[in-house]
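In the previous chapter we treated chains in isolation. Here, by contrast, the input contains three separate entities that must be folded as one system, with a combined length of 248 residues.
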Amino acid sequence: MTKPCCDKEDMNKGAWSQQEDQMLTDYIKKHGEGHWRNIPKAAGLLRCGKSCRLRWINYLRPDLKRGNFAEDEEDLIIKLHALLGNRWSLIAGRLPGRTDNEVKNYWNSHLRKKLKSMGIDPKHLRLSHYLARHRIHGFTAGETSSAIKNYQPSPHDQIKSSGIASDQHQVSDAGSCVDDDDSSTILPDLNVDIASDSCLPSGATTEEKKASTSLPSEDAVNEKTKDEQYLTSRQPEQPLSPTLPLFR
DNA sequence: AAGCTAGACAACCGCCTATAA
DNA sequence: CTTATAGGCGGTTGTCTAGCT
């Protein structure tokens, strides 16, 4: 239905050249971000607008922090992923200088394996289902840990985890990117501090704003909304502590 | 030295939502 | 209210590189 954003003919694809990077950077420095569809033409690039946006956000933006993830960043990703699932943009929003693509790649190449090698099934490392369903509020970090330890995924969760979700939209949960190894797993002492304002970027995105609006009926709430409602409905008790060691 | 493999990461694709017309 | 379009997101693929045989 939607027209392709760019005429695929005559468009460059693949890796960006230095010259293209320079042209895009110069243009954005001069005119600012936005109107991505017009940028290629205006900047003289033979690229799709989406491609320009991605290149800028993931690579050229001056405030990007490049290089290895620090241990506290790693911890934070694991915690947030347990809470939010594969909502990379939300997770990246809590990591200054990191992009959703970077976090996603890091998760898929490092953290997933790391958790698996520790005998942890990331599939079951999902707090929000449990918390939302059982309406646990006001727990402390220690209580959180015991809640996780005692958590048995409901049949509903298990169905979703194994990809039989009826939900057509990308209901991403922690298990969706994991091999379907359903061996019993030991849940770690996560020590997750969950505070609404520390789990959402300061500049709330549309998605987050949406999440903070009135509660729809239980049945109408999809997985995504539940997570966000949970996040936004809780009053902060403790700031999220990214330095809290998780598995060390 | 050459070939193979796995890891890392950049980039693309398709879908969804928000919003302007 | 409906439709078209732009922007954004997550999943997936492609490519490059380092390490191993």
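The longest helix of chain A spans residues 100-117. Residues 1-3, 5, 14-15, 34-37, 49-50, 53, 86-89, 100-101, 104, 170, 172, 176-177, 205-207 of chain A lie near DNA strand C (CB under 10 Å from a C1'). Compare these points with the single-chain example from earlier in the chapter.
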